Amino acid sequence: MKHFTSSVLSFLLVVFFISSAHSTIVSHDERAITIDGQRRILISGSIHYPRSTADMWPDLINKAKDGGLDAIETYVFWNAHEPARRQYEFSGNLDLVRFIKTVQDAGLYAVLRIGPYVCAEWNYGGFPMWLHNMNSVEFRTTNTDFMNEMQNFTTLIVDMMKRENLFAAQGGPIILAQIENEYGNVIDSYGAAGKAYIDWCSNMADSLDIGVPWIMCQEKDAPEPMIETCNGFYCHDYKPTNPSNPKMWTENWTGWFKNWGGKHPFRTAEDLSYAVARFFQTGGTFQNYYMYHGGTNFGRTAGGPYITTSYDYHAPLDEFGNLNQPKWGHLKQLHNVLKSMEKSLTYGNISDIDFGNDVTATIYAMKEGSSCFISNSNTTADALVSFQGNQYSVPAWSVSVLPDCKNVAYNTAKVNTQESVMATQDADVGGIRWSWRPEIAEQTIVKGKGDVVADYLFDQKDFANDASDYLWYMTRVRLEKDDPIWSRNMSLRVHSNAHVLHAYVNGKHVGTHFVEDGKYDYDFEKSIELAPGTNRIALLSVTVGFQNYGPFFEKSPAGINGPVMIVGYKGDERIEKDLSAHPWEYKVGLNGVESKVFSPDSGSNFKWSTEKLPTSRMLTWYKTSFKTPSGSDPVVVDLHGLGKGEAWINGKSIGRYWPSFKASDDGCSDECDYRGPYDSNKCTFKCGEPTQTLYHVPRAFLNENGENVLALLEEMGGDPTMASFKTMSVGSVCAKADENNVIELSCNGKKISDIKFVNFGNPTGKCGSFAKGTCEGDKDALKLVTEECIGKMTCQLEASSKMFGAADCGDSVKSLVVEAVC
Prior knowledge:
alpha+beta, TIM Barrel, Immunoglobulin-like, Jelly Rolls, 5 domains, 15 helices, 41 strands, globular
C-alpha cells in the first residue's frame, strides 16, 4: 500500500511539473498585464471569426502577426451559437475552438470577449430572439430568467475552452476574458438594479475560475477583480478608476461601420497612429484595434437597423483580407518602435514636460536607457521643440517617438509606407444567362391566407422570432356603398415600426415606404380603391437588422403596431374605420425562402423561366450559373442595378443587398485633413452613390472545378443583367518618403508592370495626381526606378541624393514620390 501511494504521488508530481512547464501565469499590476511575472506591452487586434470563413483565418491571423500584433481579440456571438434554446452550432465559420487554435498556431495570444452581449453592429447585439420571447424576461438587469440563460451560455463557452486547454493557465493562448460589454454606457438607466447586475456579472465570471484576468470595458468602478478598460477613438486621457488597474484600451476604432443610405467613413493612418502613440505616451500598455479585420456580415447577421453587409470598418486588413495600405504598414512601423521600448514603458519612471500650446514631452527614465515621446496636439500649428539639448520639428496633431530620447525613430504624421489602390477586374465566369420566377405570394397577397389568425396586431419580434426579415399581416374588410366611410376618396393609413413596408389592396401594390431619416416610428398613408363587398389588405413588414445598442433596446417595437385604418372623406369630414382589432392572418417569411429555391439542388423542383426576363419587378427571384474565377484574388459580385434583397452563392447567403439606397449628396470633400479629433462624419466619401455595390463571394463558397449558382431575392425591383463578377487586387501603389528614408513598393504577390511617376525633390499632389515641384534631382529618376522595380514583386528605393542626384530645394525637406502600376 505504501509503495502504491508513493507511485501515485510520483505520477501526480510528474503531471504537475509537465502542466506547470506549459502553463502561463497572467496577472496585472498598476502598470501592465504581466505574463509570467513580466510587465508587457501588448498590441491586439479584433478579428471576428463569423465575419470571414475558416479557410481565411490563417492568412488573416498571420498578416496580423506580420503587422506587429501580439494578440487577436474576438467576441463570442450567442445568437449564432444558440439559435434555438439548448440547440448549439459550432461548425464552419462558427468553430470557435478552431479559431482560437489557429491563433495559437500562429504564436499569438487571444482575448476572448464572451459578453455575451456584444453590440458589435451584430443583429440584436448578439442576443438570441428566443431569449426575448421568454415570459417576463428583461435584458441586462437583475432578471432571473435572463441571468440564468446568460450564466448558462457563459459557462458553456468557458467549459468548452477548458476542455481544449485554451486558457493560458492551461498552456493555451487566452490571456484575458471579458464579461458584459460597455455596460457603463447604460448603467444609469437601470438604477440600483444596474449596479446589482454588474456585481452579479463579476461574481458569476470570477466563480468560473479561468485562471486569467477578467475585463469589463467602459465600466467605471468595475467590481474587483474585474479590470475596467476604455473604448473609443482616443483613450489617452482615460485613467482607470481603480489605481491598481493598468491603463487598457479594448477598442481603438480604426474607422467606422457603414449604414444603408450612408456615406463611406474614412480614418487616416496619421490620425489612428497618433491616437495609439498618445495612448502609450500617457501610460497605456494594452491596446486593441477594433477592427483589425472587419469582414462581412453574411446572411442576416448585420444589426442596426440598417447596418450594411460589408463590415470593412476601414481596418488595417480590408473586408477581403487585403492589406489596407498605408494604414497596415504605418502601424506596423509604430508597433516595432513601441516593442523596442517595452522595458522602459513598463518599468521606467514617468515624467512630463509641458512646452505650452498643446506640446508635451514624456520621459520614461531607466538606468539601462530611457525612452521619450514628444506630442503636438495643436490642430493647426507645427512646433519646434528644444528638448534635452536638441531641436525637434513636430508637425501639428502628431507624436514623435524617440526610443533613446535622442533620435526620432517614428512620427505619426510622416507616412513612409506605400498607399495601395485596389482595383477590380472583370472575372471570366463564362456566359451568364438569367432565369427567373415570381415569389409565389398569390395566396398571401390576393387571398390573404396565413398560418395563424389573431384579432390583434403582433409585434414582429414576438411573432416571427427572427426567423425571417419578412412578416405578412393580412385582413379583410367588408364595405358596402351605404357604409358611413364609403367615398370616392379613401386611403389606407398604417402606423408602423417596420423598416420597410409594402402595402397591397385586393392584390394590387399600392405603395412602399422605407425609413431614410432614422425615424422608425411613422405613419404610412396611400390612396386606395375599394370595391363593394369583401376587400383584402396585405401588409408586408420588413426588418433590416434589429437594434444592437442602447438601454432597454429589447423593448423597441418592430413591425406593424397599429392602428391600421381605412380613412374616408365626405366633404371636409374625415371618417376613420379602425381595423386593428379585425381578425389578422400572419405568415412568417417568403415562400421561396421557405422552399429554398436559392439552393442549387432545388432547380428540378421549381419552374424557372428564361423567357421575357422581367426587370424592375418586385418580389422576384433571379438565378444564374457561373464558373469559379481562376487565381486566388478575392471575388466579388457587383450588384449595381439591383434594388434591395438578399443574395446566395451555392445556397449560402452572402448577405442583404440594397444598392438602390444612395447616400446624400452633401458632406463629402476631396481633401481630408487628418489634424484634429476624428468622428464618423469626418472625411467621408462617396456622396450621392450607393452605400454598397460590391459583395464578397468567399472562395470557400465556390466549387473549385465546377459550376456555381447565384440566386437573388429581389424585393423592390431591379435589373439583374447589370450584375457582374469581379476579382479584386492591388491596381497601383504610391509611396512617399523624406530624404534618407527607404521606400518599399509591393504589389501583393503580383509583379510591378510600370512606373507612372517618380520625382525626388519637392513633388506635390496625391496618389493618382502627383506633379513635379520646383526642384528635383539631376539623375534620370524614371530610368533608375524602372530598372530597379519593373518585373519585381517588391523593390526598395532609398530617398537620397546619392541615388537620385543633387536637388537644390533650399531649406525645404526633399522627398521621393513613386507611383507604380501592378
